[in-house]
Amino acid sequence: MSDFQTKWKTGFFTGVTQGWRSFIWIGRIIIPVSFLVTLLQWTGWLNQLDALLNPLMNLIKLPSEAALPIISGMLINLYAGIAVMTALPFTLEQMTLMAVFSLICHNLIAEGIIQHKSGINVIKATLVRIVAAVLAVLIVSLFLGDTSQSIAVAAAPIAPSPLLEVLKGWTINLAGLLLKILGIVMTIMIMLEFSASLKWGEYSLRLFRPLLRIFRLSERTATLWLTSVTFGLMYGGAVIINEAKKGNLSKEELESLHISIGINHAMVEDPALFLALGLNPFWLWIPKLVMAIIAVQTYRVIIYLKNRLLH
What we know:
Blueprint: H1 3-43, H2 45-48, H3 54-59, H4 67-75, H5 78-87, H6 92-104, H7 108-117, H8 122-141, H9 163-197, H10 201-215, H11 222-231, H12 233-244, H13 251-263, H14 269-275, H15 281-310
Helix pairs in contact: 1-7, 1-9, 1-12, 4-5, 5-6, 6-8, 6-15, 7-8, 7-12, 8-13, 8-15, 9-12, 11-12, 13-15
């Protein structure tokens, strides 16, 4: 057997092992969180939480009716937020602001737990995303005119679906999601292990070094950053926790990485979901990218000042 074949075989089987462990790790988080939020949605309690966001809606220049799609996105995912958003007669400008907010600040429970277990405190990670989303919306709103006008919403009550029907739909959707996660995580882990066995890491580092300098991230986080930006936070978190266990990354490197990818991840799939609503692509991609850069720069300044004060 040639040296190449040996390295390929080693990388493949190591990647499969690591991929399966990462899949189990993600599943233990997603399944209970998804089940709990589904029950909250079925009972109607989720709808009652929108009143708590009314002050936030006033702050980010949106009507109170925007609270429900935003909180659906924050606690469930972008799909839930978009579903509510399209069911109500929002203007294009209002949907733009909701998209900007939701693209940065969505699925906070599951993704927050994943970030917490892979290198950053869940409260810190969540607050960073919320603050970044608010600031991004405030800046974008300066270019869009009046977006605070209320909308007409029908008051007819909607009967909830039977619980068994809801759970059946949840099971089918979850199974599809888990299969997708398994396929992506396995592919990523095999590629990473194969790349490591052939020592291709330096080549990828040279390719993405300019981007990492812009984001002020450690060069050792290149692969982890690229994984999260391309595939999403859940998949990136699985890779990050695997690397963090090796002890190759410092706390500051991990937190900088998480601050960046918490704001700016899944850059292909997530913004594309809103294109069907007729929204301007510029507002779907650029604000979260800029906020990620600003957030990491701010974090590094805070760390620098903290170290100066301590020494």
